[in-house]
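Entry 14. Structure prediction run on the chain below.
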Amino acid sequence: MNSRANASQISDPDAKAQGFVNEPIKPLRYDGKGMAGGEAPALIVEMLPEKSRVLDVGCGEGSIAALMREHRGATVVGVEPHPERAQAARAKGFEVVDGEFDETLAHRLGTFDAVIFADVLEHMPDPASALLASKSFLRPTGFVVASVPNVAHWSVRLNLLRGRFDYVDMGIMDATHLRWFTRRSLVAMFASCGFEVVQLQWSIGRWLREYRQQWPWRWMSFWVRGKVIRRCILLWPEAFGCQMVVKAVCSG
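Output returned:
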């Protein structure tokens, strides 16, 4: 492999999934997110006040940025290292900075009401550094919103009991995930970076393939499945919540 290919692998986490999944990872696989009630995109958008200026770190194809603009009237600036995803976000009308996220961008981009990490921290080798860097972009009343998959989900627990830890192309076991979080470890990481988690919600995740494949979920309609999962989350959120969506403010 030549040096250019090596550099591509370093900057493209999808390329690192080779050996964990059978097919190449599609870079735009998470595009097309909507405002389905109880799912992570809607929970993120609902945490934002109207007319916010938002920095969307790892904005991907701009799907969630589009929801923030449509439903909150937000002005969104994205940061995205993957060129194909960055171009897709630009095609939706967003300003997108190419490259990795760090505090050196603050002088160029200014400050924001909110910094968003929508399913991003789990892809980073050092997510704490990203949280620390986000402080340089926050206004005095600003906050961070982040969504991460819940590794204590029942589907992961069940597979571990079976001796399985299989990666897939998307979902909780996305082959490009580098870090894994429970509620306790997520709150602890934010605290170690000088943030206080002031709100935590669990997404339903009715789109997970496990619900389409396993008994008894696969025999439920999409609507009934969502209703049952919501009830299960009320009873045991750590086992049935698909993603954790948190809002955090600087604690000092």
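Confidence is low (pLDDT under 50) at residues 1-10.
Filed with the rest of this week's runs.
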